[in-house]
Amino acid sequence: MDNATRQALIDIVGPENVTEKIMDLVSYSYDASSYEHRPDCAMWAVSTEQVSRILSVANEKGIPVTVRGAGTGLGGLAVPAQGGIVLDLTRMNSILEISIPDRLAVVQPGVVYADFQAALAPYGFFFPPDPASGVVCTLGGNVATNAGGLHAVKYGTTRDYVLSLEAVLASGEVMRVGARTMKTSSGYDLCRFLVGSEGTLAVITEITLKVAPKAAHRATALAVFHTLEDAGEAVTRVMHSEVTPSVLELLDGSVISLLREHAHIDLPDVEALLLVETDGMTEGYVRFQLEKIAEMFRGCNAAEVELAATEEEAEGLWKARKSIGGMMGALHLDYIPEDITVPMSQIATFLRQSEELSRIHGLDLFNFGHAGDGNLHTNIFFDGNDPDQVARLEPLLYDLHKLACDLGGTLSGEHGIGMTKAKYLPLEHDRTALKTMRTLKQALDPNNILNPGKMGLDFFP
Amino acid sequence: MDNATRQALIDIVGPENVTEKIMDLVSYSYDASSYEHRPDCAMWAVSTEQVSRILSVANEKGIPVTVRGAGTGLGGLAVPAQGGIVLDLTRMNSILEISIPDRLAVVQPGVVYADFQAALAPYGFFFPPDPASGVVCTLGGNVATNAGGLHAVKYGTTRDYVLSLEAVLASGEVMRVGARTMKTSSGYDLCRFLVGSEGTLAVITEITLKVAPKAAHRATALAVFHTLEDAGEAVTRVMHSEVTPSVLELLDGSVISLLREHAHIDLPDVEALLLVETDGMTEGYVRFQLEKIAEMFRGCNAAEVELAATEEEAEGLWKARKSIGGMMGALHLDYIPEDITVPMSQIATFLRQSEELSRIHGLDLFNFGHAGDGNLHTNIFFDGNDPDQVARLEPLLYDLHKLACDLGGTLSGEHGIGMTKAKYLPLEHDRTALKTMRTLKQALDPNNILNPGKMGLDFFP
């Protein structure tokens, strides 16, 4: 970066908000993926105007700008793949407005997810998407990845809740898109187009989110199945019924074994476990829904169906599901957490064939995830110090993604494409769709300064 | 159209599927708006391949192509504003797949909305958006306009249900966008970007729609309020509560008077009527929700709250709302049916100020609409044979749209922009947002052949 450019950037945010210190740059080289690349500098912006001026300079000089929230992304989305500026927006962290009668809230992109939920709670309202990194991740990151979570089966993902955005284009021009209303048919939907665009089309500086009343009651049940096929059939029956559970999680035999062994949870030796939750305004209604689901589980040869009678019992049923993250940390193993998604009817097929692929490639994996929306977290173990295992990783990943796409699925249910999945895009999207993505990117960011090197936009044919 | 082009088009679909007969062309000059323009020819296509070949020819020769379904649009979307080809897709009317376990269906764009609902009914499932023209309108048109309806307050609009599309670009290239899964974060969301794009970006040739289980029970209540402000406060309280009704309709004093006089419905002389419906899996639960709402209505000084005890009584409560369309037809008056939408908290303000604008401009209007999502149908009466009234129409429309935007609203909740609202776009969208829409249009349709003259894409600065 030349001195004139450096000075121009310092003039915008002040010298204390630009860093070229090696320690800082190393920190800003990573997100939660295995990718890394060092930026030339990092900056903190606190206003839309600063973001606009930074992009004007960067666009004129052709400097890459990678926006960063909490850096919890699993796909390399916040890694400055081609250097340049990391633009940290975590200081734009104000909740600007909560309007419950309009069922919306206006926030800056750096607001931490958990802080937003805490601000909504006194109203009895909540923001339904619930990424696992909610304690630290930012709402801007949620929008950039179209984050999902446990409750998407009933409540949908981030895209379903973004009403309006303020965004800065590569040129530095600021625009508002979407509407502050529950519905709109007014011009192209630039708002949802920006959701999930991973910082490659614009920098989001303000977000208007739909919020929803929180159900006062919930009921939880856990069922175990001797075969994956029975569990898959149970999911199918629930989806075929009038009941839409608020949670429908699946754990496969491998993760059940691991939890028994390493987290010391008392679980039977079965191929699948389903955890289900219903919610609603009355206790009677959530029990009614849960009983219906329990009946369907029993009709699919569930070895056991346990309905929680109290909050404590519900906590107990959640224990296995909630212990997975901690157990993975304690195991100190290298692993890849995937987020492949398939149509719900294909879950058992995917799980069975993923076991087969695990055997073929000689790498262990287990599956858990959101069976109610088909989003499966396939976790693949490998030893990063063993070149032979590392060499086998990529072919296995390719086969898993190909399998998902062959079953009518998608590469990513909630993590995004970023750097990790760019190479698989042609498995899911046809040539014309990929070309169209690149055409739109080029139209909005002709100098390719916004998060270059992501989502395959630079290199696919 | 030169002979070579005519022959090229005939070669694609056969001579019986191209018409230049004046009677046909007159029919294809209109939709349900007041706009008209004659095309050079009309064509019926029955396959994606035919659509692709037609667009290739049109793109090469620079001939406008305006896609048409049932022609029920209220915004001039299907009017061939610059002549060329009207491409009628009503013969692409097959329901290709219904997969209840995956909670989706695959349809061609010409499928009539009501036929689709009829096909889903035996499964206990339905397609939640419910445009008033459902008996005749096509699903392709629903997608092109992002159609809404009575139940959007709880169930959302068409965009929320479009999972995947097959679409033909202006070049004739065919692409699939979106995914056959409940969630996806895989590349730009081209799918929702095409929803509501009014045939200006691509021709949609196949649609994958999310479907939902139909609630077995519903309960209905009707409340009348002496003042608009009390009714507005009642809407606010409901939105502020844990209950999300499946219907929350408002009728203002003017339409109540008209119904009393012309439809002979026994209604009191009040400023507002709210019709509410709750739905769910048990009778107890829908009553529980309805009682909660009735209590809120009473707390807002409702003059009367009537809860239907039977299906017949519910029908009775719906009578006023359902009679509006027929009454308007019987009145034989010229009128403009608007679909302005405001944040729910602004409904009373909008209604009161729209009365004021009616007085100022000397044209009668009444309001009814979907209070639960802020979507109001302002109907303006005028005498089309009176040049003075016609001259006053446009300033009133401008002021109404400006008022909506000043209150944080949107120009169109469900009809689309088309030709009728293009001139108001700058009231809602800033210059950069409008420029971005045009940039994206130009990137995908550089020869401007797809439904040119719509959505202000040709002329805004």
Structural summary, described in words:
The structure is a homodimer of 461-residue chains. With 461 residues, chain A is an alpha+beta fold. Chain A folds into three domains: 1-214, Uridine Diphospho-n-acetylenolpyruvylglucosamine Reductase, domain 3 (2-Layer Sandwich), CATH 3.30.465; 217-323, Alpha-Beta Plaits; 333-406, 2-Layer Sandwich (Alpha-Beta Plaits). Chain A contains 15 helices and 18 strands. Chain A has helices at residues 3-13, 22-27, 48-61, 113-120, 139-145, 152-155, 190-194, 228-240, 253-262, 283-299, 311-331, 347-361, 387-406, 425-428, 431-444; strands at residues 18-19, 41-44, 65-68, 85-88, 95-99, 104-107, 125-126, 162-168, 174-178, 203-210, 212-213, 217-225, 247-252, 272-280, 302-307, 334-337, 365-370, 375-382. In chain A, the strands form four sheets. Chain A has a seven-stranded antiparallel beta sheet with strand order 15-12-14-13-17-18-16, sandwiched between helices. Chain A has a five-stranded antiparallel beta sheet with strand order 5-6-10-8-9. A four-stranded mixed beta sheet of chain A has the order 1-2-4-3. In chain A, helix 8 packs antiparallel against helix 12 and helix 9 packs across helix 11. The first copy, chain A, starts with a helix and ends in a 17-residue tail after the last helix. The mean pLDDT of chain A is 96. Chains A and B meet through strand 9, helix 7, strand 11, helix 8 and helix 10 of A and strand 9, helix 7, strand 11, helix 8 and helix 10 of B.
